[in-house]
Structure formats: C-alpha cells, structure tokens
C-alpha cells in the first residue's frame, strides 16, 4: 500500500522548494499523487491545484481539523515545515499520525524541523562541540525547560514514542539562496540584513563575529527528499532519540557576509558606501532587523560547534560551498528586490509564540 505524505508550509521558502523538487522528480518512490500540501490562502490553493497538486487549507492549531485532515487523506508521513517551533502544533500532527497508525496498522513517520542555533553557547548550550550522532535527546533533557527549540525537540520525541510514531529531527541552519517554490522565495536572516541596510543606507554588523552553520535552500530541500525516499524504500535510518540530522553544508563568517553584501549593495547604489558599521546596540539591531530582542544577540553572534554526521552517512551531497555562497551576493540582493516585503517570515513569530 502506498504511503501518503503531508507537507506543511508548502507555500513557504523551504516547503515550497521541497514541493518544487518533488514535482521535478522522475525515478523516485515519491509520487506527487500521494502528496498533500497545506497552504495559508485559497489563492495559493488554487494556484497549486491548477498544477495538479493536492493542496488544502488547514489550521494547524485546530487539533480536530488536523486529525481529520490526516485521516481523510490517509497520511502516513508528515514533513513539518510550517510553525515547526510551536510544540502544540507538532503535538497535534503527531497525535493525528498516531490515530492514522491505528487505522492502517502500518508505520507512521514525523519529520520535524528544528534549528542549529539551539546548540550554541550563546543560546545556553553547555556541552560544547557536538555531533548529531551524540545522545542529543538526553543532553537536551538535562537542560532547564523554557527554550522553545529544545522544548519542541523533546516534545516531538516523547509524543512520537507515546503514539507509536517514528520521529526524525532535521536541525536547520541559516538557509540562503533563491527558493524555487511557487510563492515565497527568500529566507529570513539575510533578507532582514538587506532590507535594513537598504532602508538605513548603511550595512551593519555585530561587534562579535560568528561562523554559523549554513546551507543553500536547494541542498536543504534535497535532504528532506532524501529522508522521504529512504523511508519509502524502507532503508535503515537513525530515528527516534537517535534521529537527529544536522543539515549543515558549511560555515562562513558573518563579517565576511556583511562585507560582501555591502559591496553588492554599493555597486547598485543602494547604500552610501561599501563600509560596514558596527551596531551601536543590540536594542537597535533588534528594532531595525525585526528580530526578537531576547534572542538578537544569540541570532547575530552564535556559531555553534556542531558536526554533521547522519545526513552525510545516508548519502546527502550538498552542492553549495562557502566560496560559492560568498560569490552569490548579487543573487541575494536581487531576490530581495524582487520579492520586497510581499512575504514576511513567520519564524520569529513562531519563536515568540513558543
């Protein structure tokens, strides 16, 4: 019996790129006819329906509506991208999969999306360098409750175990590049810097450099698809408490990124000079970038000593390197100019809600 997939956030940056890649697959166990996509608006639903995509509007906060959607669409696998840091939503989806598993007598899988920033010293991670093959679940359980990312990670593993659902956690880094989805095609952090720099006519950086984990959106989507293919082919995978996947392709200096952005913006006449200034205060940075004040320092200066193992072990092969990324700043600028403020990220709202 074919296993059906539900993709949340199909109109977003990463979710839309995943959907686009799925639709372009040829020799793959993933079949578009077995895919359901959740979207935010009727206009988006119509656009994808015209492309023969089964798209639905679904309030992920409505537990009964989520259960009905999972059961009526015979969903066995959920790839959760939308509002992934809100524990209640993850719980609704996993419990719905638990109900589906009882009906189908088969396996059910939940692929959750976390973020790498949770594993940085600036975000209270006390264990230093860490691999995704380490006992991350046990390490996260040792920390006090209250961090939205770690709370969501723990909840996913615990609820999935209780419901008999197999969980995997993809730990998402800073994602960049032009998405290929039908709607939103820009990321969160770099467009924040670009829009602010254009508005202020000057590029700012934090007083402390950082080397965050980074991945191009096409490589990010490729990992989710690889996991889906492995699941459908019944291939062995790290799962449950061992099912963490650091989706890091490379690291890069934020200061180098800011200088490259300044150069690209100056060439277009969008800033007054190709010089990068230091933010006068974290409060000003949070206000101008639109980032949560309590997390702005960690978001702007954390690196995180993470080492990806599991994704590469199952065959993930990112195509983008740090050098290629730093040479693509004109693409980042053009993407923001084309999309403008049409699509605002809900990532920071999700963090605050969680």
Automatic annotation (TrEMBL):
Entries under InterPro entries matching the protein: Epimerase_deHydtase, NAD(P)-bd_dom_sf, NAD(P)-dependent_oxidoreduct
Gene3D superfamilies (alphabetical): NAD(P)-binding Rossmann-like Domain
Cellular-component GO terms for this entry: cytoplasm
One term of GO molecular function: aldehyde dehydrogenase (NAD+) activity
Residue intervals passing through the bilayer: none
Domain NAD-dependent epimerase/dehydratase: 5-231
Top-level taxonomic group: Eukaryota
Entries under SUPFAM superfamilies matching the protein: NAD(P)-binding Rossmann-fold domains
Coiled coil: none
Pfam families: Epimerase (PF01370)
Name of the protein in its database record: NAD-dependent epimerase/dehydratase domain-containing protein
Higher taxonomy: Eukaryota, Fungi, Dikarya, Ascomycota, Pezizomycotina
């Amino acid at each position: 019996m074919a296993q059906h997939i539900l993709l949340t956030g199909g109109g977003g940056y990463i979710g839309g790129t995943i959907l686009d890649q799925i639709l372009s697959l040829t020799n793959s166990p993933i079949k578009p006819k077995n895919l359901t996509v959740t979207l935010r608006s009727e206009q988006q639903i119509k656009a994808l329906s015209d492309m023969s995509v089964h798209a639905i509007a679904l309030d992920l906060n409505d537990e009964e509506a989520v259960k009905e959607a999972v059961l009526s669409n015979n969903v066995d696998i959920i790839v959760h991208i939308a509002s992934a840091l809100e524990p209640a939503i993850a719980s609704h989806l996993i419990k719905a999969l638990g109900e589906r598993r009882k009906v189908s007598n088969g396996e059910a899988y939940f692929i959750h999306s976390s973020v790498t920033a949770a594993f940085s010293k600036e975000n209270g991670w006390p264990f230093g360098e860490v691999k995704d093959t380490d006992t991350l679940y046990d390490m996260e359980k040792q920390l006090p409750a209250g961090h939205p990312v770690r709370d969501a990670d723990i909840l996913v593993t615990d609820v999935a175990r209780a419901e008999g659902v197999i969980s995997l956690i993809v730990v998402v880094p800073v994602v960049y590049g032009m998405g290929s989805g039908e709607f939103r095609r820009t990321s969160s952090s770099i467009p924040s810097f670009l829009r602010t720099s254009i508005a202020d006519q000057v590029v700012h950086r934090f007083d402390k450099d950082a080397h965050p984990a980074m991945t191009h959106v096409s490589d990010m989507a490729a990992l989710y698809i690889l996991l889906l293919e492995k699941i459908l082919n019944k291939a062995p995978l790290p799962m449950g408490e061992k099912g963490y996947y650091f989706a890091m392709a490379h690291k890069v200096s934020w200061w180098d990124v800011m200088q490259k952005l300044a150069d690209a913006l100056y060439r277009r006449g969008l800033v007054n000079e190709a010089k990068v200034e230091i933010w006068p205060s974290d409060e000003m940075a949070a206000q101008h970038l639109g980032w949560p004040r309590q997390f702005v320092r960690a978001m702007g200066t954390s690196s995180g000593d993470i080492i990806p193992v599991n994704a590469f072990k199952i065959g993930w092969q990112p195509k983008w390197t740090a050098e290629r990324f730093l040479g693509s700043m004109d693409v980042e600028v053009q993407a923001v100019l084309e999309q403008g403020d049409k699509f605002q990220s809900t990532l920071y709202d999700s963090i605050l809600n969680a």
